[in-house]
Description:
eight-stranded mixed sheet
Amino acid sequence: MIRLVSKATLLSTLGVLAASYALAGVPNLTNSTIGIAGRPNNGGFTVVMCGYNGTTFGTVANGSGNFEQHTITVRDAANNAVASSVVVLNFNACAPPPGGGPANGIKLSTNQFGSGMTLNTGARSMSGVTNSLGAVIFRVSGGSFNSVGNAADPANCISVTADGVPLGTLSGATFDQNGVGNITGADAGLFQNDLFGAYRHRSDYNKDGLVSGADGALMNNQLFGSFGGTQGGGAGGSVGPYIP
Length: 244
């Protein structure tokens, strides 16, 4: 009887070990982070979408503190970093008409920052690969389809997966709010409507859960920097063209 019990215990232990090995390196929703540490993964975190002209990414040039960088860290069930994991941000549910999504959706630019990022225009997605620490940094270029002051914007429409495992959702913040392809005084006016109206993710550039003067300063960096349009006095850099 003792031998049978020992054998059963051994088999049970081997089964647990086998299951642990099977889960090693598999992305885990609970241990992975796609937004701000300490907050749930489905919490409306913002991916700040700026302009990229093939050489310069908008906010870096304007000394913004790199708030446009969005880091996602992938870990497995044992809380180990998962290296070489393919992380995908999918914007398909954000697409404005004629893409078939929300009326005030997000436009993903066809001109993206080239630091290991891959753009899939058909799927409306961006992907990157995690480093040895399980982290990947996204910089995304894009705009909104916002034509009415303080209109509702689509929250949590950006789905995040790692090796096909769903990790949560994100929202988008944009400087080209009217989606014409550059940043002008018209976009600043639309931002002002959000500043004095209901909270909108699209105008929360510093990701603090508020639309405030701090976000206004970041809008001015874009408006008067290398990605501002002629109304803003800038050089007229391009954010678009956008995926239809």
